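Q: What residues go here?
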């Protein structure tokens, strides 16, 4: 923006050459000179001095409205350019990244002129990164604090028990108590998948410690390979094991009173907006 217009805005708002000069770190003669140059440029009188009192003409009023609007447009332009240059950090849980990655989101991020990065972590890790300002948004499976985050549910998926296809049961659905003589393969602390299981067991007055043996595994590929052994069980979203169930390597285990559906959420820090994140959110809503 023209420096003369910036000076004029300050003079008009402060109604003083002296205060405008102090605010802009200029000398008073320099401020007066810039106003005179504007009067010459637009061929009109902007300021009259009557008994030491500054009075603005109707031309000054018109110029101020224009200059102020122009300054606001310049500020908006700077903000938009800064946003364009800013790297966008987008998180996903391991399950979503490996088995539910939305194709539309991937294509959009690749084609966008924004620089972006995708961070993979469990639900707890992603929420913590958003709290400290290191992540702009995330696709998560578990619950989140609505006081700290805004979120929308964009997909529902069955949450199932999975075991080896070689496992032979006398009856199904199996009673919960009959599960506890098996080894439980479970994700690490902080995982949304683990939290869903723990919450359900709590409602049944049980916990993961009710199982004969617990093995924590931070990767579903490893969990599914380990499930090929007899007498193991794990819990996951249906899509995670869909291919292995279809090929006959694993199977869904039916359990009494166990019928869970859980939502995936697009989550952002509370009241935070970014043009690219808003577009990603709108694409999730349409999935």
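A:
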């Amino acid at each position: 923006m023209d420096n003369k217009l910036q000076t004029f805005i300050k003079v008009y708002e402060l109604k003083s050459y002296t205060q405008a000069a102090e605010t802009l770190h200029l000398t008073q003669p320099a401020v007066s000179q810039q106003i005179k140059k504007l009067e010459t440029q637009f061929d009109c009188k902007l300021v009259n001095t009557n008994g030491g009192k500054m009075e603005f003409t109707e031309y000054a009023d018109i110029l101020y409205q224009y200059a102020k609007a122009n300054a606001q447009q310049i500020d908006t332009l700077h903000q938009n350019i800064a946003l364009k240059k800013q790297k966008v950090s987008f998180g996903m849980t391991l399950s979503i990244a490996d088995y539910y990655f939305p194709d539309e989101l991937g294509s959009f991020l690749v084609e966008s002129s924004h620089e972006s990065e995708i961070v993979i972590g469990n639900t707890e890790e992603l929420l913590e990164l958003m709290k400290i300002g290191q992540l702009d948004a995330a696709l998560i499976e578990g619950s989140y604090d609505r006081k700290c985050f805004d979120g929308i549910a964009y997909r529902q998926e069955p949450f199932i028990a999975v075991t080896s296809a070689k496992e032979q049961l006398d009856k199904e659905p199996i009673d919960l108590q009959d599960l506890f003589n098996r080894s439980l393969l479970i994700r690490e602390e902080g995982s949304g998948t683990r939290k869903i299981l723990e919450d359900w067991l709590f409602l049944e007055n049980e916990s993961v410690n009710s199982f004969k043996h617990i093995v924590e595994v931070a990767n579903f590929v490893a969990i599914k390979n380990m499930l090929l052994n007899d007498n193991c069980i794990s819990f996951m979203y249906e899509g995670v094991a869909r291919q292995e169930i279809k090929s006959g390597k694993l199977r869904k285990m039916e359990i009494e009173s166990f019928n869970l559906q859980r939502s995936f959420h697009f989550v952002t820090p509370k009241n935070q907006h970014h043009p690219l994140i808003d577009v990603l959110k709108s694409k999730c809503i349409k999935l």
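A: Context that may help when evaluating the design: The CA atoms of residues 221 and 240 lie 9 Å apart. The longest strand covers residues 149-164.
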